[in-house]
Amino acid sequence: MVPADDGASPAPIDRLVMEWMRSRFAGSRMRGRLYLHVELSGDYYLGEVSARFEICWYRNDDFAVHYQEERQDRTWKCQWDRHPNAHNSRDHFHPAPTASRTDAADA
Amino acid sequence: MTDDTRRDGPPPVDSPFEGENTKERVYGAILHAREPMMAAEIADRADCSAESARTHLSFYADLGIVIRHEGSPAKYERNDDYFEWRRVNNLAREHTVDELQARVSELTDQIEAYRDEYGVDSPAEVDVLKFDAERIDDIYVDLSEWATALEERRLHERARKKAN
């Protein structure tokens, strides 16, 4: 396989890691453009909320984990990322409620 | 839309992975062994004893899932060649030559579109850090998809030759 594991970026999707994660969840599936879509159980939420994770994992162990809640009147989301960038450290967090880029914090 | 087998209510929050056994956790840890790692390191990630990790690792080495590097201590590494071979086999078995060819063409179109857009031949040649902070996350996703498309095309081409 292409030596994508030398920490070099960008790296292709790590299908195996995503399939393994998928096997940990009851309600998940792989989408066409490859990412793991995890529907969270509404039983844990007050009121009408549908919540999901969208997870991408790469062969250099970079990742993007997006969390999103659809509430009655608005969307509430945040995101954990690991990838090279000019705005923060490689590991960083985009805070809720909008997963804002400008307010991202190093992790 | 989801697997219905386990949808009889949410699992308890305090032990979400209760059903998971050591063998599965060792497998999960192996996937991140992108360079040779000691059994003790893998055990640490899999939350099990080094002894137990060694037992499972030796089984996975027999299957070809990990490469065992002899030495003291021995080290283990995810065997990408094995996983690639398995993927190519599955593609060749599940698709016709025409389907594989169609997918190769589709991926080639995607790859050419990325080349045109970024003006270089491979995603590695693009310096992500040169782009505005505002756009960098999207560009990174783009470049990773480009890298994925290149790999997918290679695997689909191998499968097409095999299916012939």
Structural class of chain B: mainly alpha
Strands across the major sheet of chain B, in which order? 1-3-2
Classify the oligomer: heterodimer
- Structurally, the number of domains of chain B stands at 2
Strand-residue fraction of chain A? 25-35%
| Tally of structural domains of chain A | 1
Label the overall shape of chain A.
flat
Q: Secondary-structure element order of chain B, as H and E?
A: HEHHEEHHH
Strand arrangement within the widest β-sheet of chain A reads 1-2-3-4-5-6-7
What does this structure look like?
The complex is a heterodimer of chains A (107) and B (164). Chain A has 107 residues and is mostly beta strands. Chain A has one domain (15-106). Chain A contains 1 helix and 7 strands; from the N terminus they run αβββββββ. Chain A is flat and about 40 Å long. With 164 residues, chain B is mostly helical. Chain B folds into 2 domains: 22-78, Winged helix-like DNA-binding domain superfamily/Winged helix DNA-binding domain (Arc Repressor Mutant, subunit A), CATH 1.10.10.10; 82-163. Helices cover 60% and strands 6% of the residues of chain B. Chain B has helices spanning 22-30, 39-46, 50-63, 80-94, 97-118, 133-163, and strands spanning 37-38, 66-69, 75-78. In chain B, strands 1-3-2 form a 3-stranded antiparallel beta sheet. In chain B, a hairpin with a 5-residue loop joins strand 2 and strand 3. The longest helix of chain B is centred in the last third of the chain and has 31 residues, at 133-163. The radius of gyration of chain B is 21 Å and the shape is extended. The chains are: A mainly beta (107), B mainly alpha (164). At the A-B interface, helix 1 of A face helix 4 and helix 6 of B.
Task: Jot down its keywords.
heterodimer; A: 107 residues; mainly beta; disordered N terminus; B: 164 residues; mainly alpha; Arc Repressor Mutant, subunit A; 2 domains; three-stranded antiparallel sheet; 6 helices; extended
